[in-house]
Amino acid sequence: MTPTGADVPSTRAGLLQVRQRLGTARRGFELLDRKRDVLIAEILSTVEEAEAVRNETRDRFAQAYQRLEMARAVMGTERVRRMALSGQRSVDVAITPRSVMGVIVPSVRYEVKDAAPTYGSGTSSVVMDQARLDWAAVLELIGRLAEKVTTVWRLSLELRQTQRRLNALEHLYIPMYQEAVERIEQVLEEKEREEFYRAKRAKAKLEARRASRGKG
């Protein structure tokens, strides 16, 4: 987009060119304005979801920690530590990109491949089993929370850039092109008036000559 309309000649072709630029700027403003509204709505919705996930994560974390403390009280710290280190479960985390108004945001999927305990049921307790499931749920919630927070961050950056473009169009380009249109229109109107007066004077001179010849 040309940053100024002063470089356009004050002709009808120049006027058409500036009007086209003005129309493009106005259409761009409308599109960006709609994009801004969608981004704001998406951000507010995601923030609400993130807040819900954060609260759930906090509550589940507290519950998991409480049950772990109960397991330590029932089974002893050393026994709980041995069970926690007795084996590893496969965790699958898949991050898939998706687009929101042209902004790439992550979609996080978390899955525990093997949810079965890695120790014998006779060597554990119900509290330990529940704690194990609670910590697995906490990991999943952390993945969901990371997805929401990252989405809000990226959408906020895009919103900031969109607002800057809107400000530039509203306060710089559109007024500039409007001023250029008015300036060229005034120049063309002045030229038309001059042409009219020149034609009127030429016609008056011609009629005077004809009248002079008629008398002779």
Provide a count of the helices: 3
Radius of gyration: 37 Å
**At CATH's second level, what is the architecture?**
Orthogonal Bundle
Strand elements, count: 2
Shape: rod-shaped
Class derived from helix and strand content: mainly alpha
Major beta sheet, specifics? Answer: 2 strands, antiparallel
How many angstroms separate the termini?
A: 65 Å
Average pLDDT, all residues:
84
Reading side by side through the largest sheet, how are the strands ordered?
1-2
The top level CATH class name = Mainly Alpha
> Low-confidence segments, ≥5 residues, pLDDT <50?
none
Look up the CATH topology.
Answer: Helix Hairpins
> What is the N-to-C succession of helices and strands?
HHEEH
**Percent range for helical residues?**
over 70%
Domains (count): 1
Q: What share of the residues does DSSP label as strand, in percent?
A: 5-15%
Walk me through this protein's architecture.
This protein is mainly α and 216 residues long. The chain has one domain (12-206): Orthogonal Bundle (Helix Hairpins), CATH 1.10.287.3240. The chain contains 3 helices and 2 strands. The protein has helices spanning 12-75, 77-84, 126-215, and strands at 91-100, 103-112. It has a two-stranded antiparallel ribbon. A hairpin with a 2-residue loop joins strand 1 (91-100) and strand 2. 14% of the residues are buried. The mean pLDDT is 84.
